[in-house]
Amino acid sequence: MDAAASSDTSGIRIEPIAAAHIDSFHRALDVVAREKKYLSMLEATPLPETRAFVMGMIAKGNPQFVAIAQDEVVGWCDIDRHFFPSHAHRGKLGMGILPAYRGQGLGRKLIETTLRAAQEAGFIRVELDVYQDNLRALALYEKTGFVREGIIRRAARIDGRFIDAIGMALLFEEDGPA
């Protein structure tokens, strides 16, 4: 691990998202979305939609964690269980970290915490799509057990440019990730 990745994150708490975090989560989501590099959305959904999403995640018992620094959300990771009953063992992972907090090991802490909660909640498979040019995220996902399953060609179009994505998944066994 390099010096940047070993920076002190001791002042950052990782905790399950709660209604009190929604406004701050919405602001963080908007910052990362507007970078137009990492998320499918190009800006955060309106606050009422974000609130409905978070409250729905809480009500369904889906794992969603936030990283808190100075009472503000600086990162998040969540796994949304698939809607169809025949696919209910599967979930889709989403995450983001504010630019100033990247490269400090926070992503790994968030994803490991969220994956533990997903396994405890009975998920068997966790999936994600990551833009092919997001090398830091690809490395993180592979370090935490995700395996590349395929390329989604022209998965996104941002500012007239097509971006391929890599579909990845992690399978849980009874005693841990497969």
Automatic annotation (TrEMBL):
Pfam families (alphabetical): Acetyltransf_1
One example GO MF annotation: acyltransferase activity, transferring groups other than amino-acyl groups
Superkingdom of origin organism: Bacteria
Domain N-acetyltransferase: 12-173
Key word Transit peptide present: no
Classification via SUPFAM superfamilies: Acyl-CoA N-acyltransferases (Nat)
PROSITE patterns for this protein: GNAT
Keyword terms, alphabetized: Acyltransferase, Transferase
This protein's name: N-acetyltransferase
